[in-house]
Structures are given as C-alpha cells and as structure tokens.
C-alpha cells in the first residue's frame, strides 16, 4: 500500500540528508510504528506519505500512485489522513460536530451523508456524547480524538500519526492509543511515529530510524531483543520489557513474547 524506493531527501541548506536511501514496504491493514530519536528522520518519512514532502531522489508510491506527479497529490491525500503533535493546530471550529463536518463540507458532500459520517466518526473514537460540546472545554487527549474523527469523516484508507501523543499526558496518550488500536482492528492501515516505546508493543512491526536510515525493521519481539542497536539509536525499551529482562537475569522463566503490562502480569502471577 505504501512503498519507498531508495528515497533520499535533503532540507534546503542542510549539511546532511534527512532521509538517506530509504526503501520500505507497508502492507494494507498493517499497524507499523516508526521510532527514532529527534532528528532521526521519522517525521520527515511520515510527511512523504501524503506528499507534504517530495523526495530529492527515489520514489514514494501510495495506493499505486507516485507522489512526485502533481496530478496524484489530491487523490493520495484523499487516501491518507494525518494527525500531528498539537491538536489545537488541527481544530478549526468551536463545536465538536462542526469541526468533524468541516472536511466533508469542503468536499461538497451531501448534508445527509455528512451527518452520517460525523456520527460514525465520533462513534469510532468514542466521542459521541461530546458532539455538541465546545472544543476548548476538551482535554488534550479528547481534542486529538476529535482531530482523528475529522480525518475519519473523509474516509481515508491510511492513518498517519506524526507524534500525535507527544503533547498529551499519560491518560491522554492511553486514550488515543486505545482509539488507534480499535481503528486498526476495523482494517485501517496505521503508521504511528512516536518516541514512546511503550506505545509500540502491540504493533505488527517497528521501523527503527537513525541518521535518516532504516536500521531495523521487524516485529516488536525481535526489535526489543536488539539491546545494542536500540542503545546506538538512543532508544530505551519499554519499562515492561526492562522488568521482564531483570526477572530473567534473576533466573525466572519469562518468555520473549512478554511485551506489555498485561502479558507481564500473566507471566509473573504463577511465579508468586
């Protein structure tokens, strides 16, 4: 569904390329995390998916359309929805349901269809009861879910989260991640750019970036076992994985498949 072929990208006046010969394949319906330290190139990669940035060399193909062809940009952006760091920058009206309806209205969609899309989108993110609320009364996590509802009302096939949890508190991050997991279960393709490794434990794949290059692309289980590579990339495994490893060093039998808190609890309880 998404294909990077030897993509290099350099910002104007930059000494080094932000992306360096990146090749990557994302299958339809997958849930992929893109991780890396600040400046690793992960957000630059995300912005290539809907044509916000275009490669200096190489090609990006989304749903069979190359982003470097001007006539493809609008069709690609109709397939790819993006949520960014600050939810306040993505909300354009004062009432929740009006904000969710903003995109479809600008596409000239019939009012009855807009009403249906707004209701469906709000239900998808668990915000139906907030439809008539003022946006400025919402928490950061709720605002981000409304921003995603506005994206869903446009019926995209791909959702890209560019550090969408970065400005949220822990409860807001959990709300948003739970929402994203639910959307993925409906078949939506999700790419999540994040610095919070604990958010990646239930993804299908983790792509680790460092200095503009993909240095690892594998399952969470495999990536978290690459201790030296994570350290070189200035990344720290989730707390649950660190606890698992500490218990194993003490002689307890904890399988590699234990990645999140629930799995850790299930593995530890029989040992008590």
Write the layout of secondary structure elements.
Layout: E1 2-9, E2 19-26, E3 31-35, H1 42-48, E4 57-62, E5 65-66, H2 70-79, E6 80-83, H3 96-106, H4 111-124, H5 140-152, E7 158-162, H6 170-185, E8 189-194, E9 205-210, E10 213-218, H7 220-224, H8 227-232, H9 239-249, H10 261-268
Helix pairs in contact: 3-4, 3-5, 4-5, 5-6
Structural description of this entry:
Strands 6-7-8-3-9-10 form a six-stranded mixed sheet, sandwiched between helices. A four-stranded antiparallel sheet has the order 2-1-4-5, covered by helices on one side. It has 272 residues and is α/β, with parallel strands linked by helices.
Quick structural overview:
With 272 residues, this protein is α/β, with parallel strands linked by helices. It has helices spanning 42-48, 70-79, 96-106, 111-124, 140-152, 170-185, 220-224, 227-232, 239-249, 261-268, and strands at 2-9, 19-26, 31-35, 57-62, 65-66, 80-83, 158-162, 189-194, 205-210, 213-218. The chain has a 6-stranded mixed beta sheet with strand order 6-7-8-3-9-10, sandwiched between helices.
Percent in strands: 15-25%
**Could you report the average pLDDT, rounded to the nearest whole number?**
92
Structurally, the number of domains stands at 1
List unreliable stretches of 5+ residues: none
**DSSP, total strands:** 10
Run of helices and strands:
EEEHEEHEHHHEHEEEHHHH
Alpha carbon gap, first and last residue: 46 Å
Q: Can you identify the CATH superfamily?
A: P-loop containing nucleotide triphosphate hydrolases
Largest sheet report: 6 strands, mixed
Please tally the helical runs, counting DSSP H or I stretches of 4 or more residues: 10
**Per CATH, which architecture?**
3-Layer(aba) Sandwich
Major beta sheet, strand line-up: 6-7-8-3-9-10
CATH class: Alpha Beta
Helix content: 25-40%
In the CATH hierarchy, the third-tier topology is known as: Rossmann fold
